[in-house]
Amino acid sequence: MESGPRPADSAVTLGGRDPLGWQRLGREYAWNIAGVGFPAVVAVGAVAVAARVVDPTRFALVALVWSAVSWFGLLDLGLSRALALRVTDALARQAPGEVRPLVWTALWGTLALSLPVALLGVGAAPWIAARWEGMSPALRTEAVGTIRWLAVTFPLVTTGIVLRGAFEGGRRFDVANMIRIPMALASYLGPVVALNWRPDAQVAAAVVCGVRGVYLIAQLGWLDRLGPQVHHPQGPDRASAHALLHIGGWIAVSAICVPILVQGDRLVLPFMAPIVAFGWYATVAEAVMRIWMISSVMQPVVLGALATAQVRDPERLSQLLRTAVHATGAVLAIPLAVLLILRSSLLPSWLGPAYVGEAEGIVVIVSLGVFAGGFAQLTYAVLQAAGRGAPVAWTHLLEVPVVLTALIAVAPRWGVSGVAWVFTLRLVVDAVVLGLWSARTLPYAVAAAKRGGLWLAVGLSALSVIARLS
Q1: Contact 86, 285 (CB under 8 A)
Q2: Greater pLDDT, 271 or 184
Q3: ∠342-190-51 over CA atoms, to 5°?
């Protein structure tokens, strides 16, 4: 691989007067906010329409389609983040010739891992559907078809996520989101239109699958924005594979655990409660977690800035982290507080009276988890950007059996409320434990960790008080 800069490649390096300037970082964050904000607004409306177009049990299958695709996005085995870090490092060192082998090696590796899973999902669909409660024989047949479409969608989603990591590593958040926004809008509007034409969850799943395929093709066509000839395919590269594995080994462990931890509640509920309960719980939880995206879209920007600073300007690391902590707290606390104040009027108008029930309490519990999760995500980025993925991975490994055991234990006794509390408490533990780890292992993270702990304590307390008073 090339190790030095080439004049012809200067347009694709992380050049400019100040790649760590607040103007550039703000612009990158604005692109990411647009990339999740517009689709999130459309998603809220699409869910409301879908809840009225089909009956509650079938709506649960439609909710499964949207939830599963979100879950698939977490199953890239850390290749997306590892690729982002390697691409950022290559461009910070002005070595854009390294980008092409990195991108295609990650892409082939993702396909090699995801295609067998897709085939397994197609074959196991009848077995999975047979174990869901509260379904008629006809609807169970529909569920089998829906699961099979989702299995086909799985490799499309994971490869798309990895390619998005390449754009984020190159800090081309503009390109990434110009492609992402139409895809995300179509993923929600397309199924709603299809359900009006034919109320069948299989059709909704097929539409999402087609949209993800088009998205992947569009990403491949825009890869040349990262460097010369990057969009031209090439075979796996041994040096690139070693580089990705070296930085991505511990990230991969976390990537295996995180989908179970984040979506574990939605994995357990269909087997331990009527499918209709899963439908409204998953919908409410996903809606609240949309607010999470306001802070989560900051993480790729922070990751790229930290990786760049380590090469070009290490003295700015502490300042970047402190600003990221305050920004995380502010962008989460305000919308969550508004949601908690208005929840009793928003829920009936959004999903209708048939879906309310325990939903108000679930909104409160999940909101607390989302606030804590914002700081946990920020700490993941800090530790992984510094090459300290081991503490993150060990924390997640130890949490998986504890969380699964807790979910199985609380679901039959305390129902969806107990499941929601497991979700939230796990995120609080993540934020505290990993915050302490960052302060212990990274000298420049000490001040940021203290500020994060203060934000966490005050924010959770304030949101709890707001929920009680409203």
Answers
A1: no
A2: 184
A3: 40
